[in-house]
Automatic annotation (TrEMBL):
The keyword Membrane applies. PANTHER family: MEMBRANE COMPONENT OF ABC TRANSPORTER YHHJ-RELATED, TRANSPORT PERMEASE PROTEIN. It is a multi-pass membrane protein. Its main location: membrane. It comes from Eiseniibacteriota bacterium. GO terms for molecular function: ABC-type transporter activity. PROSITE patterns: ABC_TM2. GO terms for cellular component: plasma membrane. This is ABC transporter permease.
Length: 396
């Protein structure tokens, strides 16, 4: 009897292609996503390249050699030119200045900038604590970038020099280890230097968007219950129709999402001193766009799934995968360049980038247009897809 039941269960599994995918294929895909995010992002355990802006104020053969050495480092993505502020699409890139580099770091375009001041060429490999210091401008949210740039600058200095340390100032005297390095460096934080809880906004946005997706998928799954109870058939026979039904559910889930995100951020403001009141315009725009997009996403899941069990399995896989790649679980700026670009196929990555612009970089509302536009386009695409998937109930 046991053997008969075993064969019966195996036969059912062989006939159910959805169950086969859920059992064998999806776990492999889920494992691969988390391995890429948390396991080195490339299979070799290497850290992602750091985007660094380099300003050469010295303009000497030595400073140019340093820039060249840094450009040859596999761990750095060196940028020495950028378009001016308020430039038009036709304007070409120009050599970076200290002010422009600092502005780009403040705007989140790069996590770190390196300034080689005039006189740096005669200040290398000196151990008398004299001479100019290289200046590192950094974003407090990514301390790894500043340390990597500083370390690779020291290595570039040693590679560039062919002379003994004594020729540039004598033997080192007693002092701190930092003073005995071949290049003296001053690090200055230009973003987040006054934040008491720098990562609160990041976690609030990440957790809020992730749980909002779970709530939206559950609300969208009400269509399955209405189908099983016969309510959907009666609604389709009324003047509302399927389009009206989906519109009503989308508006309700959107309203619920706005309320859910607001409660999360208000709690962050009251308990963790999140500066919500000083960022209300940007918060309101990002919350409305995010909630609308997630609501449409929930309708897609609800119209795609055939049963509640299928909805739960697909929703858990898709939401956790999007959360891992999109930045809810792990900051995107610590991922590889390839994975950072790949994550933009998910709407939640755009939402988190928008919240980061509002609360961390404190950019004006006008700077949110790429994120808002992306969320609007995702919303339209999700609503169109949900309407197409819902046709199966109209023809049934």
């Amino acid at each position: 009897m046991i053997a008969v039941l075993f064969r019966l269960a195996w036969t059912n599994l062989r006939r159910d292609r959805v169950a086969q995918v859920m059992t064998f294929v999806l776990p492999i895909g889920f494992f691969s996503i988390f391995a890429l995010v948390f396991g080195g992002s490339g299979g070799n355990g290497s850290t992602p390249r750091v985007h660094v802006l380099v300003v050469d104020e010295s303009r000497t053969e030595t400073s140019a050699g340093l820039v060249r050495m840094l450009s040859e480092e596999d761990g750095l993505l060196v940028q020495a030119k950028a378009r001016p502020a308020n430039a038009t699409p036709r304007d070409s890139a120009v050599t970076l200045t200290r002010e422009r580099a600092e502005a780009l770091v403040r705007a989140g375009e790069a996590p770190v900038a390196l300034v080689l001041p005039a006189g740096i060429d005669t200040s290398l490999l000196r151990y008398d604590r004299r001479g100019e210091k290289a200046l590192v401008l950094t974003d407090a949210a990514d301390p790894i970038a500043a340390r990597m740039v500083t370390g690779l600058l020291q290595r570039a200095t040693l590679r560039l020099s062919r002379h003994a340390a004594a020729e540039f100032g004598g033997a080192p005297d007693t002092g701190s280890v930092d003073e005995m390095l071949p290049a003296r460096v001053e690090t200055r934080t230009v973003v987040g230097e006054k934040r008491t809880s720098p990562m609160i906004a990041f976690y609030a946005a990440g957790i809020a968007v992730m749980f909002l997706m779970f709530s939206a998928s559950a609300a969208g799954g009400a269509l399955i219950e209405e189908t099983e109870s016969g309510t959907l058939e009666r609604v389709l026979g009324s003047r509302v129709g399927m389009t009206g039904l989906l519109a009503a559910k989308w508006l309700y889930i959107t309203w619920l999402g706005v309320l859910q995100i607001t409660v999360m951020f208000v709690w962050g403001m009251l308990v963790f001193r999140l500066p919500l009141l000083s960022h209300l315009p940007g918060f309101a725009l990002m919350t409305a766009a995010t909630a609308a997009c997630v609501a449409a996403f929930g309708l897609v899941l609800g119209t795609f799934a055939r049963t509640r069990a299928q909805l739960q399995g697909v929703a858990n896989l898709v939401i956790l995968s999007l959360s891992a790649v999109g930045g809810s679980m792990f900051p995107r700026f610590l991922m590889s360049e390839t994975l950072q670009k790949l994550s933009l196929v998910g709407f939640n990555a755009w939402a988190l980038d928008g919240y980061r612009k509002v609360f961390w970089f404190e950019l004006p509302v006008a700077a949110l247009w790429p994120q808002l536009l992306a969320l609007v386009l995702f919303t339209v695409a999700f609503l169109a897809l949900a309407r197409q998937l819902a046709r199966r109930w109209e023809v049934a």
